[in-house]
Amino acid sequence: MKVNEPKRVGPVNPYRQASDHKALNGTNKKEKQRDQVQISSEAKELLLETNQAVQSKERVAKVNQLKQSVESGTYHVDAGKIAEKLLPYFK
Q1: Which of 43, 48, 53, 70 could disulfide-link 75, Cβ–Cβ 3.0 to 4.6 Å?
Q2: Where in the sequence does UniProt note compositional bias of the Basic and acidic residues kind (predicted)?
Q3: Measured in Å, how far apart are the chain's first and last C-alpha atoms?
């Protein structure tokens, strides 16, 4: 003797089935909406060129200053700073 029909158990909670279906398909709008930024290749090249120009000017000035201080004998090496930089390599 059968107590339940086999097809009667499925539609017990149609709301849960609908939410499960949405979760599986990814129809949640909050998850789909994401901000995106696209930078053109021209803008990337321009940024790279300006960064290189600024860095090269700063580097040239710093190298010239170091050359002058070495030539004049006023260049001082701080042993404490060197030790701090080398310490992580010996741990």
Answers
A1: 70
A2: 18-35
A3: 77
pLDDT digits (tens, 9 = 90+) for 33-42: 788 899 999 9
Report the length, in residues, of the chain: 91
Question: Mind spelling out the 3-state secondary structure of the chain?
Answer: CCCCCCCCCHHHCHHHHHHHHHHHHCCCHHHHCCCCCCCCHHHHHHHHHHHHHHHHHHHHHHHHHHHHHHHHCCCCCCHHHHHHHHHHHHC
* Contact by Cβ (8 Å): 32, 26: yes
The pTM score is 0.38
